[in-house]
Design brief:
alpha/beta; Rossmann fold; 2 domains; six-stranded parallel β-sheet; globular
Length: 231
């Protein structure tokens, strides 16, 4: 399979796609909820994946009620997450190999994340990736978070490339919805959330990992050029 058209840029989600962080977020917030006397079920947590902090607040308040102390939960969960991340955060399979291919093809790239910019900068620097993403769009850089298209539209604008000319890489349902709504070719690389029929309808491909994404834009051995069609 080749892509429908040659991308002029690639826009990455961060958590669950570049970093194996969603499981750490899950463990941290579930533990924080339990410490506060609340049961945060797997299904309830999964519904927050890809959302910004304010959207997560609304999602949990709708479940637990208006009296729910989200700020206390968030502070405790953040503390627990940073402790876990310092010890356990790692790259997802294929990240550096894919970036090497994008460098060789001179394809611009950006990150469009629901996380805060400070978190993105910290994680990227810790893993030696800060210089490999010249454009980072984080919480606070757009009016509406995922599943609205704003993060991806902002990334495309900062890259100076039309959204429909970009390839978006996502692991979450809300992220896929955002990228597709922005008009980008979208590939889902599932993490904690599996692909659904809705996701298959919005994506051009469901990939097993970033190695498979790399294979889409790497020419076969002995062949010249790229597997990507000429735009």
């Amino acid at each position: 399979m080749v892509l429908p058209r040659a991308p002029a840029a690639v826009v990455f989600d961060m958590d669950g796609l570049i970093f194996d962080s969603e499981v750490l977020y899950r463990d941290a917030i579930v533990a924080a909820a339990a410490a506060g006397g609340y049961e945060l079920s797997p299904a309830l947590y999964l519904g927050t994946i890809g959302l910004t902090g304010p959207s997560t607040r609304d999602h949990l308040a709708a479940h637990f009620g208006a009296a729910f102390d989200f700020d206390a939960l968030w502070a405790d969960a953040s503390r627990r997450f940073h402790l876990l991340a310092d010890a356990q955060l790692c790259l997802k399979a294929g990240v550096t190999e894919l970036l090497d291919v994008l460098d060789a093809a001179a394809l611009p790239r950006a990150i469009a994340t629901s996380s805060r910019r400070a978190s993105a900068d910290h994680h990227l620097a810790r893993h030696g990736l800060a210089s490999r993403f010249p454009v980072i769009v984080a919480q606070g850089d757009y009016a509406r978070g995922k599943p609205a298209p704003d993060p991806y539209l902002t990334a495309a604008a900062r890259l100076g490339i039309a959204p429909e000319a970009c390839l978006a890489l996502e692991d979450s349902h809300n992220g896929v919805r955002a990228a597709a709504a922005a008009g980008m070719m979208t590939i889902m690389v599932p993490d904690l959330l599996g692909a659904t029929e809705e996701m298959r309808g919005l994506c051009i491909r469901i990939a097993r990992d970033l190695h498979e994404v790399r294979e889409l834009i790497t020419p076969p051995a002995g062949a010249g050029g790229s597997q990507l069609p000429i735009a």
